[in-house]
Amino acid sequence: MHEPGAGPARDRRPPVDGGRAVSVTSAQGFRAAGVAAGIKSSGNPDLALVVNDGPRTAAAGVFTRNKVKAAPVLWSEQVLTSGALRAVVLNSGGANACTGPEGFQVAHATAERAAELLGCGAVEVAICSTGLIGAQLPRDTVLAGVEKAHGALAAGADAGTAAAGAIMTTDTVAKQADAVSEAGWRVGGMTKGAGMIAPSMATMLSVLTTDALLDAPELDAALRAAVRVSFDRLDVDGSMSTNDTVLLLASGASGVRPDPAEFTAAVTDVCRDLARQMQADAEGVTKRITVRVTGAATEDEAVVVARTVARDSLVKTALFGSDANWGRIAAAVGYSDAAVDPDRLDITVNGVPLCVGGVAAGGRTSVDLSGADILVAVALGLGEGEGEILTTDLSHAYVEENSAYPS
Amino acid sequence: MHEPGAGPARDRRPPVDGGRAVSVTSAQGFRAAGVAAGIKSSGNPDLALVVNDGPRTAAAGVFTRNKVKAAPVLWSEQVLTSGALRAVVLNSGGANACTGPEGFQVAHATAERAAELLGCGAVEVAICSTGLIGAQLPRDTVLAGVEKAHGALAAGADAGTAAAGAIMTTDTVAKQADAVSEAGWRVGGMTKGAGMIAPSMATMLSVLTTDALLDAPELDAALRAAVRVSFDRLDVDGSMSTNDTVLLLASGASGVRPDPAEFTAAVTDVCRDLARQMQADAEGVTKRITVRVTGAATEDEAVVVARTVARDSLVKTALFGSDANWGRIAAAVGYSDAAVDPDRLDITVNGVPLCVGGVAAGGRTSVDLSGADILVAVALGLGEGEGEILTTDLSHAYVEENSAYPS
After folding, report:
1. GO terms for biological process (chains A, B) (predicted)?
2. pLDDT tens column, A348-364
3. Which range, of A63-72, B25-34, B282-291, averages the lowest pLDDT?
């Protein structure tokens, strides 16, 4: 797995793990491109195309649960009912959300243009968009961008990295990962997302690819299991986007039918790797915080408690200030919608027990929070349920970025 | 009603409304005091005493729903089962939360000392605390403070204002209000609270007093109805405290039995006034935001939608930046746990329609957000349910105050 550094990096070279190139084109049967179509006024890359050259085109997707869904989400949910995708067109520079019938027409036309170029049907092309909500995408610019991207399609890590770069918004680094099975198949993937990240994903778009041989229902089961414990466990600011999309495309090019459990584990590994990269590159991040809850009545309750702590603005600002303010953590545990016995509550921060049995254990000033990684461990003493949420601190830079950037 | 200014004020003189003094001692039959007991290392006032001299001592209370409850909350909930209170001791400088049996003993001893001085039982004395969670209160300092406050007890607005000043933490101004009935009775009150403010109240302590003649069940009904549409509709940062307490004490000194509806309305007015003062003095506030939702299926769903928008960090940072970013509002509406039809969604900010029928209506740059007050109006077009939440923006000052202040 590729492990990113904490600080903002701007290196867009393909990450390399043990000599392998790591990207959405890692698996056999995939080509990609990332181009500057002119949607972003900055002139930065803003349109990506990922193509599955087969021999199979099985696919699965997971989408935002937001009731206000962007046009590309409505389009892609619809076309994915067939369980097959030949290609995905992704753009940054505009979310195409709250854009009405006109916005849906642009998504449809984008799929049609890609389909014409690839010689397939529009219903085999998914669309993903990210950027400002409420503005119409410039239709002709997008369609010309699809043609430009089609002309730039290539196999290999450079093409995958170009695609990953073209979907960035406030991301400072392209995010890619992969996993390799000794059985001869791979899973690769890319993602974007730096803010508006919360349960059931984020303003995040992610495309995963594999050359394993699987049917759509098998892909769907693996993807849902993976997302549940990876992207769904990342919560930067509690906000859920109108555009969240994770797609998994399978080319079958390896000819190998994988062990289902091994395949699910590999997809989960890639999703977790990408989630960690999003955490490390989140808007305004200065601390990467893991909230780990054990001893809950159930796994779901553990996640509820972890998410409540991870979202608490007072906890997040205290950790930004390197203050091991466990009282705020205890308060957040107490108002979560989960069973809590205050007399059994233990809170440990970076290995130092601060609260034992619901009472101060001392040591608050001895906790070293000078580093970028913070582990908040909450033990409820009620059962065997455990779970964790990845989050970030609430910093001046978060406020700055989100009060200035009209996303 | 006393209407506070937007900016932080440090005027602790009693507010005067139409020549009346407005305080927790406005109603007949009450004395109060606020003293510097030495709990706060700053030497600022930190202990308040409110005494009901009768002839009646009926009382009601509403407490935090946090499962981690401070010792004074556990004590006060217990003594209030009798429906009578002779006095309330309040301290700032320490929450006495997560302090175990030792903390409960301090609360108990505080009530006993006040009871000895007043010639009543300890079960007639409620205790309220606010400040850092997890530290033991200095028992002897608190008990000496109770004696000092007892010696300073007085009727009149100056005494009430001294009490209101002694419960301040990060508050910059003492918060008081009252209401007067032509029938001859009054309701007065004070509150504190500037952060950790959320549903089912906040790190807020509030004592309300009346000289109307009511029984405890009548007080309880009026108080719960009032809190539901006032303090419970203030949500600064989504965090719920371990210490929230609102008490209502009735002396019956006016000899007037009020009309129940008029009394409930008066208590509601006072609570709303105090809630607005807390909003105006919230930590780091630069904008006072009202999120008003209409057209929901039910009132509860309207409040759910309003609260989700009010808590969204991206909405709050955008409004801090005077950016009418309605797309973020639409996204928050969409992920709320309420029925939403995206095609019927209207969003209006400070009177300018920005989204109509789920689609951009233009005008985003024409919204004047330069003032301190912002009204976000969301119309769902589904039913008759409506409700509003008061909140504030998420500013640099909020981050600064909460990363530096170990509350």
Report:
1. L-arginine biosynthetic process; ornithine biosynthetic process
2. 999 999 999 999 998 77
3. B282-291
A94 and A146 in a single domain? The answer is yes
Which of residues 88 through 107 in chain B touch A, CB cutoff 8 A?
A: 95, 97-100
pLDDT at B19 over 50: no
Q: What is the pLDDT of residue A200?
A: 37
What pLDDT is recorded for position A196?
46
Is residue B268 within 8 A of residue B228, CB to CB? The reply is no
Q: pLDDT averaged over chain B? A: 89
Residue range B393-400: mean pLDDT, rounded: 83
Per-residue burial over A136-164, b = 16 or more CB atoms within 10 Å of its CB, e = otherwise? bbbeebbbbbbbbbbebbeeebbbbbbbb
For residues B271 and B307, state if they share a domain. no
Asked whether residue B271 falls in the same domain as residue B300, the answer is no
Residue B69 among known ligand-binding residues: no
Q: Is A321 on the interface with B (CB under 8 A)?
A: yes
Q: What is the mean pLDDT of residues B316-341?
A: 92
Most distant CA atoms of chain A, gap in Å: 68
Q: What is the CA radius of gyration of chain B?
A: 21
Q: Which residue has the higher pLDDT, A111 or A13?
A: A111
Q: How far apart are CA A47 and CA A242, in angstroms?
A: 19
If pLDDT is split at 50, 70 and 90, which confidence band does B29 have?
very high
Report phi then psi at B68, rounded to 5: -95, 100
Give catalytic residue positions of B: 203
Q: Which residue has the higher pLDDT, B122 or B232?
A: B122
pLDDT for the residue numbered B326: 93
Dihedral over alpha carbons A125, A126, A130, A135 (to 10 degrees): 70
Residues of B in contact with A312 (CB under 8 A): 238-239
Catalytic positions of A are 203
- Reported as a pLDDT band with limits 50, 70 and 90, residue A181 is very high
The verdict on A276 and A299 lying in the same domain is no
Distance CA B95, CA A103 (A): 53
Mean pLDDT in chain A?
89
Whether residues B266 and B395 fall in one domain: no
> Could you tell me the pLDDT band of residue A20, with boundaries at 50, 70 and 90?
low
A391: domain range? Answer: 288-404
pLDDT digits (tens, 9 = 90+) for A183-206: 999 999 999 886 545 433 347 899
Chain A CB within 8 Å of residue B399 CB: yes
CB B59 within 8 A of CB B80: yes
Q: How many domains does chain A have?
A: 2
Q: Quick check: ipTM above 0.90?
A: no
Do A30 and A167 lie in one domain? The reply is yes
Residue A366 is part of a domain; what is its CATH number? 3.10.20.340
**Which B residues 8-37 touch A at CB under 8 Å?**
none
Cα separation, A351 vs A349, in Å, equals 5
